[in-house]
Structure formats: C-alpha cells, structure tokens
Design goal:
Blueprint (H helix, E strand, L loop, with lengths): L5 H10 L7 E4 L2 E4 L17 H4 L3 E7 L5 H4 L24 E5 L1 E2 L31 H9 L8 E4 L21 H9 L4 H12 L4 H4 L1 H10 L2 H29 L11 H4 L4 H17 L5 E6 L15 H5 L5 H26 L2 E2 L2 E2 H4 E7 L14 E5 L6 E4 L6 E2 L1 H10 L21
Parallel strand pairs: 3-7, 3-10, 4-12, 5-13, 6-7
Antiparallel strand pairs: 1-2, 4-11, 8-9, 10-11
Length: 438
C-alpha cells in the first residue's frame, strides 16, 4: 500500500466531512465555497463520480446589436487563422475557442424582433405573434432541476427583456442590478438580515469580514493548494464588493457634481460595458461556487452613449452605421471593449483550477446575437464566439455566407456536452460540424 503525506492525510480526513455545499456563515451571510480538493471525495463511494466532482456549466451571452463582421471574422478558416481586431484579446485561450461565421437560425427573421429567437431558434414572425418555445438555457435548467440552488440565472446589463423563455413561451424577466445578484448569492433571504448586512457593508465591513472567523478556521485544516484556491476566490469577492460600493457611491452623488463618463455602473444606465464586466464577475462566482450551472446575460439593442473615450454617439445609432466611417470607428471602440471583457472572463476561468482541470474546461461559453448586420437588420450570418467546455475546438468554422449553416446544431452539441443525451433541439438535428465532444 502506497504511503501518503501528512498534508494528504489532512485532506483525506477533511474530504470525508467537508460537504460540497459547505458554506461560511456570518451575520446574515451564507457564503458558498468554490470546488476544493477536500470536496472531491478521496474515499471511494458511489457518489464520487467524475461528474459530481467537476460538473459542466453553460454561460450564454447575447447581444441585441451584434458585432461588426469585418472586425470579428477571420479571412481564413481553420485553427491557424490570423486574429482580427476583436479576436486579438483571445490569444491566450485560442486553443479553447471557436469562431463561427456563416450560421443563423433557419426561418428566423424580423430584425430586432428576432431577439426572442436567439436561444430558442424558433421563428416568432415579423409581427411577433407566433408562440415562442423553450430557450436553450431553460431547457438545460429544467433537465438539471434542483441540482444547484439556482437552476439558472437570467441577467441583463439594462432593461426588462431577455432571450430566455419558458416551455410555454413566456419570456423570463432578467435581473439587471448587480447588487441584487450579489445579495442573492451571499445574503440569506431574511429582510432583517439583509438590512443588517447592508448597513455593515456601508460602514466598511465586507462579506469577508463577516465570515472571517469561519474562513480562518477552515483554512487551517486545508492543504496548501486549497488555501491558495480559497485565497483567490476571496480576493474575487472583495474586488466585486469594491466595484459595487464604488458604483453605489457615484449613484448617490448629485448629478451636476459628476461627469457622466466617470459615473460608474450605478448612475449611468448606458454604461453597458462596465455592467457587462461586473455581471461576468458575478457569473464567475456563481459557477465557481456551483450556485448555478446555467447563466444567461443579455446586452439589449438600445441605449444612449456608452462612456468610453472617443465615443460620443448613441450605441444603437452606431450599430446602424450605414458604412459611415466615423460611426464605424466609434462602433469598433465599443465592440472591442465588449470582446475584451469576454476574453478576460475566459482567461479568468482558465486560471481557476478545479479537480485535475480548470473552470474553463468545465464551462462552455457562447456569445451570439440575433443580428448579423445591425445596419440593415439582417438576421443572417450571426456573430458567434464559442469557448471552453473541454470540447475539441475548430478555430474558425467558415460556413456559406449565403446558405447559412443551422446555428441550432451548436445547441445540440452544447446539450450533449452537458451530458443531457439529446440529439435534437428546435431546428437543430445533429451536432455541429467541426467541434468534437471531449
């Protein structure tokens, strides 16, 4: 029988009593933990399967105004494509991603109205009268059931619409306040406790302060790798808290005293880029703690001027550029900011170890839109960036620009990668050509 080190013995003892749902508790706080080695179940039991230790997750990011194809799609197909303006930030995760051009949802039209079809692939008609069907995220959530505290999270950077639909075709209203999501993840659902926690944070006490004693006690029993992993997680929580506190501080200042460009996510509803970044940080915490395995975040197709240097025209107007050079320049600034935040999110996931892999390998991330060309409201040639999930990625999959490939076939691939055993979804009748299951 092989020997184990003293540190391994500690991990082994903890593994038998540290449940996957272990939380740290403070005043009004229930702080979930990320996957630790001590949770992986070194003892042999029926429950300690690979799926239990490293569950698959899905994150869907949808844009109401798309991405300018000339700045996104490479000129050549395959894995050795030359990066474009929007893809330069993804070099560190290039081997874990696929860019798809020449795909769309068969029969879907209606321009902006097709936002309802992004994740259902169901034509709802130009007048919006047809009944929609269940969206990809909700199909996954229904199959997963009560596996996690939240079957899914539905988010938006602004507004009350989402591409997420129930089985009966009813739209699910998104959560668009980052603070609400943070509290849903970390604050127990008692009004009195929420008020107490909010007051403590306002007086400079963070979530980490409130669970400090539990955190110290737990850290003393963990191995070096778990302590490091826990430290990184706690740092992410602190950074998000600081970002939310800053946003709320700006929101409470009199409007004449601050510049709109410096207002932060709390004051400026048009700052979709900062909201996108903050929501992605919260999604990372939600999937890292296994609070949910399905998340959708929508950037709506409306809004005023996004506060970025060099941008002075409303986002919606920029997307309807009509080949105007100045609008295209400003649009590139906005869309580069969005894609850069996505790249950072993927890189962050790759940096978080889980089991013998990392979180990006366990999380498939899709970014797409209902519009392939917002300027003429075309629903063909949808922008698609797909990453992670432990899949065998194809670099740039370039399908026919005139006779588009069904994007819903990718949805079938995503469902199979979630171990859901289905071979059809909406108009998707097979897995996507060019991406292999791991």
């Amino acid at each position: 029988m092989s020997s184990i080190s003293k540190a391994d013995e500690t991990t082994f003892r903890i593994a038998k009593r540290l449940d996957r749902r272990t939380v740290l508790r403070g005043s009004g706080i229930a702080m979930a933990l990320p996957m630790l080695s001590a949770m992986e179940g070194l003892s042999v039991s029926a429950a300690s399967t690979r799926d239990d230790k490293s569950p698959k997750r899905s994150v869907m990011l949808t844009m109401g105004l798309g991405l300018h194809a000339e700045n996104l799609n490479p000129q050549t197909a395959g894995k050795n494509f030359e990066s474009t303006m929007y893809l330069e930030s993804f070099e560190r995760v290039r081997d874990s991603m696929t860019v798809i051009s020449g795909s769309s949802h068969p029969g879907v039209g209606g321009g902006h109205r097709a936002e309802a079809s992004i994740l259902t692939a169901t034509p709802v008609g130009s007048a919006g009268r047809a009944t929609n069907t269940i969206s990809l995220d909700q199909f996954m959530a229904k199959r997963l059931g009560s596996t996690t505290r939240f079957p899914s999270v539905v988010l938006s950077t602004s507004g009350s619409t989402s591409p997420c639909y129930t089985e009966s075709g009813s739209m699910i209203s998104p959560m668009n306040n980052p603070r609400e999501l943070f509290e849903a993840l970390f604050v127990t659902p008692s009004a009195k406790q929420r008020q107490r926690q909010a007051a403590q944070v306002k007086h400079g006490r963070s979530i980490m302060d409130l669970v400090a004693e539990d955190a110290r006690s737990l850290s003393q029993t963990l191995g070096r790798g778990d302590r490091h992993r826990l430290g990184e997680y706690f740092q992410s929580v602190r950074q998000l808290e600081q970002r939310l506190v800053e946003a709320e501080k700006w929101a409470k200042l009199p409007k004449p005293k601050i510049s709109e460009r410096d207002a932060g996510i709390g004051k400026n509803p048009n700052d979709h880029v900062s909201r996108f970044e903050t929501m992605l940080g919260l999604i990372k915490l939600a999937i890292q703690t296994d609070s949910t395995r399905v998340a959708c975040l929508h950037i709506p197709g409306s809004g005023g001027v996004i506060p970025l240097d060099g941008v002075d025209t409303a986002y919606h107007s920029l997307s309807h550029h009509g080949q105007d050079e100045d609008k295209l320049r400003q649009l590139a600034v906005v869309e580069t900011a969005f894609t850069k935040r996505l790249a950072d999110f993927l890189i962050d996931l790759r940096g978080i170890s889980e089991g013998d892999s990392h979180l990006l390998d366990q999380t498939q991330v899709l970014l797409t839109s209902n519009l392939g060309n917002a300027s003429n409201h075309s629903n063909k040639n949808m922008p698609v960036i797909f990453a992670g999930g432990g899949l065998k990625h194809g670099g740039h999959l370039a399908f026919d620009q005139k006779n588009n490939y069904p994007l819903s076939n990718l949805f079938v691939t995503m469902l199979q990668n979630m171990n859901m055993g289905v071979d059809r979804f909406s108009t998707g009748s097979t897995t996507l050509d060019g991406i292999g299951l791991g």
